[in-house]
User: Fold this.
Amino acid sequence: MSSEQSRAAADTTGRIDTTTDSPRGTSESSGTAEAIADLQMRLTYQEDEIQHLNRVLEGQRVTLHQQAMQIEQLRRLVVSLSEGLREQVFDGPPPHY
Assistant:
């Protein structure tokens, strides 16, 4: 494939035809190395973000568990207080009778 045909293939498809018989130049391998370095950097960033999100999620799990325990304690307190009030209300006639 001639260089004009390669340019035409790149122009019509928007991509470079990699099936040409032209030898690979340093600019092509440099671009590949840059792309790999960029992907490695993105992967490292994503791994760090995942670790951070896991720590946040664990903290929220602990907080949620503590809040569930507090709600249960409050529920028990409300039940005991309402039972105490019920006993006072049904304990007989008021003292002024």
